[in-house]
Amino acid sequence: MLEVRGLRKSYDGLEVVRGIDFHVAAGECYGLLGPNGAGKTTTLKCCLGLTRPDAGSLTLAGLPLPAAARAARMRAGVVPQFDNLDPDFTVTENLLVYGRYFGLARAAILQRVPQLLEFAGLEDKAHAKLETLSGGMKRRLTLARALVNDPQVVFMDEPTTGLDPQARHLIWDRLKGLVSAGRTLILTTHFMDEAERLCDRVGVMDRGRLIAEDSPRQLIRAHIEPHVVEVFGEGVQEWSQQVAPRLARRVELTGETAFCYCDDAAALLDSLANQESLRALSRAANLEDVFIKLTGRDIRD
């Protein structure tokens, strides 16, 4: 459904996408992960034909980009990073006007409206003005709007930003349903649990390069020890330097927390049993551990 080869893009002499290659199969959910400034949004814009690349080749739904960008976008849905709904229209009118951009007949759009509202959990808001909706409702409407043209592939830039836990789980369930129905999803997200739940494969970008790609489970297996013990409390710095290295394969001290990566956490947890000043959280390794290891803990602006 999407093929990217040798993609490069620069702005004002700064190369923000530096020769990346990846593909997304039909019916797959693919996640593009990375810190702020990694080049994710620029990559998505190139994949939609909204930005002309400096080098490389791209095809979307079998069509070359940017040469056939308009035709390719007719087969795609887009959830932007920030909502851009029309505040002067009702919920249904927003769906209707957006559908007209795709050349759809008014009757055909109105026939799809109940299904789209059910997808977003907004069945009772069909005639509501946007000013009466919460931020989470507006985000869900933006997600529903992306499906108005019944697209083959849906691009989502941080789709659940601003949603409460209940709404996130609702949208996750709906997105899984889209994949089961054969749709292709391509998303960026800063929620690693979201990527781990939804994505068949993920690519990790950093400083314009694709530095790792595989299923979430395989990435965890390849890069992180099976168990992680987070230790915090008074005296954790001294403990992490003197005791932890003997009991863990890898130790990272970040602020007031020591992250201990182990093949077996039993010995480390036993050593903490009599340490009343220290507390510990033991868990399985996850995709966030992979992300931090590959891209670092420094804050990116």
Question: What is the secondary structure topology, with strand pairs?
Answer:
Elements: E1 2-11, E2 14-24, E3 29-33, H1 40-47, E4 55-60, E5 63-65, H2 69-73, E6 76-79, H3 91-100, H4 106-120, H5 135-145, E7 153-157, H6 165-180, E8 184-188, H7 192-198, E9 201-206, E10 209-214, H8 216-223, E11 227-233, H9 236-242, H10 244-247, E12 250-254, E13 257-262, H11 266-271, E14 278-284, H12 287-295
Helix pairs in contact: 3-4, 4-5, 8-12
Describe the 3D structure.
This protein is of the alpha/beta class. It folds into two domains: 2-215, Rossmann fold, CATH 3.40.50; 225-284, Alpha-Beta Plaits. Helices cover 35% and strands 29% of the residues. The chain contains twelve helices and 14 strands. The strands form three sheets. A six-stranded mixed beta sheet has the order 6-7-8-3-9-10, sandwiched between helices. β7 (153-157), α6 and β8 (184-188) form a beta-alpha-beta unit. It is globular, with a radius of gyration of 22 Å. The two termini are 32 Å apart.
The major sheet is characterized as: 6 strands, mixed
Query: What name goes with the CATH superfamily of the largest domain?
Result: P-loop containing nucleotide triphosphate hydrolases
CATH fold name of the largest domain: Rossmann fold
Helix count equals 12
Give the strand line-up of the largest sheet.
6-7-8-3-9-10
Distance between the termini: 32 Å
Q: What is the rounded Rg?
A: 22 Å
Q: What is the approximate shape?
A: globular
Q: What is the structure about, briefly put?
A:
The protein is an alpha/beta fold.
Brief descriptors of the model:
single chain; 301 residues; alpha/beta; Rossmann fold; Alpha-Beta Plaits; 2 domains; six-stranded mixed beta sheet; four-stranded antiparallel beta sheet; 12 helices; 35% helix
